[in-house]
Amino acid sequence: MDDLTMDLTRLCRRNRDGSYGTQANRLRGLTAMANELRELGYRMPAAKSLKSKHVDALVEKWLDNEHTDATIRNRLTWLRWWAEKVDKSNVIHRDNARYGVNDRTNATRNRAKQFSQEKFNKLTCPYIKGAILLQAHFGLRREEAMKFRPQYAIGRDLISLKASWTKGGRPRVIPITTLQQRQVLQHLQKLVPGDGSLIPPQLTYVEQLKQYEYQTLKAGMRNTHGFRHTYAQQRYKVLTGQPCPINGGKLWQDMTPEEKTADRTARQTIALELGHGRISITDTYLGSAAR
C-alpha cells in the first residue's frame, strides 16, 4: 500500500459520513483513484497533495476509458468529499459540465468537441500535436494516438491499430476516407523516424502522458476525448446522409424504415471503427436509437 492509499484510508476512518455502505463504496473508490494516479505517474505523499491537475488527469482518464456519466458523477462526488476533508475544495469545479460530464437533468448533452486551430497552435511538442490530429481525424483514444507507429499502422486505404495500443487489447482497422486524413498521415510519416511512435524516444509513455496533460490544459484543450465524439458524428452524417439524433437529426420514431436501416448499419460501422464490441455504446456518441 502506497503513502496516498494509506492516508486516504486514514481519512475515511476519521470521517465516517453516511451509511456503512456509503463509507465502504467511498473507500473503494478513493483507493482506486490512488492506484490510477500512481499509474498516471503521480507520486502523491498525502491526501493533502491533491491539486487541480490530479482532478483533470483522473477525469480525462475516465472519459478516455468511456465510463458512463453516472459513474463519473459518482467519482467526482468522492473526489469532492476528499477535497473538502483536506481543505482543498477549490481544486474541483462545482459544475460537472466543466469536465464534459452530463448532469442527471441533461442526459442528452452532446460531448462532441470542435477542433480549434488557435488552441492547437499553442502546443509546443510536435508529438503531442500529432496525437491530437489522430484523435480529431480518426477518433482514436488518447493512448492509442500516443502509441501510434506510422511505419506499422499506415496502409494504402486504412490504418491498423495493434492490440497492444488499444483498450481491451482489440486490434482494429479504420478506413482513410478524406484528404485531410491522408495529409495528417503524411505529416506523421515525416515526423516519426523509423519504427518509432508518437512518444519521443527519450521518454516513457507515462512521462509523455504528463507532458500531454500539461500542454493540452495550458492550451485550453480540456477533454480531448470530445474529438472522438465529433469523429463519430461526422462519420454518421457521411454514412447516412443526415446528422445524428444528438446533433439535431431525426429521432428513431421519426425515421422512415429506410432511414432506420441506414441508422443501424452506420452505428455498426462506427462501433467497429471506435473499437467497441457493442452497438449500444454508440448512443453515447450519436444519441439513442431503438434496437
From TrEMBL:
Occurrences of domain Integrase catalytic (ranges): 130-234
Record's keyword terms, sorted: DNA recombination
Q: Which InterPro entries match?
A: DNA_brk_join_enz, Integrase-like_cat_sf, Integrase_catalytic_putative, Putative_integrase_N
Gene Ontology terms, MF aspect:
DNA binding
A GO biological process held by the record: DNA recombination
Chain ranges passing through the membrane: none
The protein's superkingdom reads Bacteria
Per UniProt, residues of the Putative integrase N-terminal domain are 1-83
User: What is the protein name stated in its UniProt record?
Assistant: Integrase domain-containing protein
- State the organism named in the record: Martelella lutilitoris
